[in-house]
Amino acid sequence: MTDIHPAWRTPWRNMRWAFVAIWMLFLGYPLGAVIGSDHSAPVKAIGYALVGAFALVYLLASVYVLSGRTGPDRRGVPVFGVLALLTIGLLPIIGEGAFGTAPFLMVVAAFTFPYGWAATTICGVVVCALAIPAIAGWEQDLGLVVVLVAVGFTMLGFRTIAMRENERERAEERRRELDAELAVVAERERVARDVHDILGHSLTVITIKTELAGRLIDLDPQRAKAEMSEVNQLARDALAEVRSTVGQLRTPDLPSAIAGAESALLAAGITADLPGRNIHTPNGSLLAWVLREAVTNVVRHSGASRCVVVIDDTSITVRDNGSGMGASGFGNGLRGLTERVESAGGTLSVTSDADGTAVTAVRT
């Protein structure tokens, strides 16, 4: 059974957005300014509606745009525009108190605009916080300006750190991909050497025996027949050895799959809870296929911090504590794995929710 949530719900299950949205607590300042203003009830109601709309837009932006951002995102432009218009709408109601929303504008600019534009926009917000009260004759709050400067350039600092961390992660990913490619090349070279040695030895012996049989065919037909019988057996043995050697590329064994899964999980920073490598089961090849595909999905897509694998003679379960699958989570890899398990007389089930994903294969 597969339980996959709609794609729009997936970002809500990854709680990283909460670290961005938590700063909405500071919207209490403009909200307090509306409460303490001398305006009539209808005007105050408009102020409440504007602050509420600002909070809603920023919350949605935290979930769908800002969470996990390390580079430009064009969606930040309309978000910034809407938030700026809501701030402008608050100016006639609470005056300089409307600049209590400015830090949120800076966050959107810092994490979604190109770096140069982000710095320019942040400076522009600071200038507006100085110029608009001066032009309107409002009381100048220099403390707020200092806070805006500190917030703005702190956000740019976080952006720089995030960019560098992302570059480091990409470099690490490229290194792992290169290591995997080198491992494939080394394995191919090993197989090529093994095939060369098998065929070289066998064909040399076959050549010698066929030449001998050719010379003996008139002199000693019985011995020639025996030599040709040995040639036939040598050819069969060589073919079996070649098939076994090449087959190692296609059929993983369970201990090697466990070792590979542990290496992949640890390289991705995921705690691995795996059975010992000395496990033996008549279904080892099938379980190895399931383990390899499921762990690949955990590493690439889950966002998990822990992965637990349980194996017995007839089944395997791979469970992670990630954010679950999106609507397209059941892709070609799992579909192909389902077909492989079913063709071997087993069943594959996948469950996915906010607590993570579990892949279970059972061979009946």
Architecture overview:
There is one protein chain. This protein has 364 residues and is α+β, with helices and mostly antiparallel strands. Helices cover 68% and strands 9% of the residues. A five-stranded mixed beta sheet has the order 1-2-3-5-4, covered by helices on one side. Helix 3 runs antiparallel to helix 4, helix 4 runs antiparallel to helix 5 and helix 5 runs antiparallel to helix 6. The longest helix is centred in the middle third of the chain and has 78 residues. The N terminus is likely disordered.
Task: Name its key features.
364 residues, five-stranded mixed sheet, alpha+beta, 5 strands, 68% helix, elongated, single chain, disordered N terminus
Q: Indicate the radius of gyration in whole angstroms.
A: 33 Å
| Global structural class | alpha+beta
Our count of helices gives: 12
Structural shape = elongated
Mean of pLDDT:
80
Query: What order do the strands of the largest sheet run in, or round the barrel if closed?
Result: 1-2-3-5-4
Helix content percent band: 55-70%
Distance linking N and C termini: 17 Å
Topology, element by element:
Blueprint: H1 10-13, H2 17-21, H3 28-36, H4 41-66, H5 76-94, H6 102-112, H7 115-136, H8 142-219, H9 221-250, H10 254-267, E1 271-273, H11 284-302, E2 306-311, E3 315-320, H12 332-343, E4 346-353, E5 356-363
Parallel strand pairs: 1-2
Antiparallel strand pairs: 2-3, 3-5, 4-5
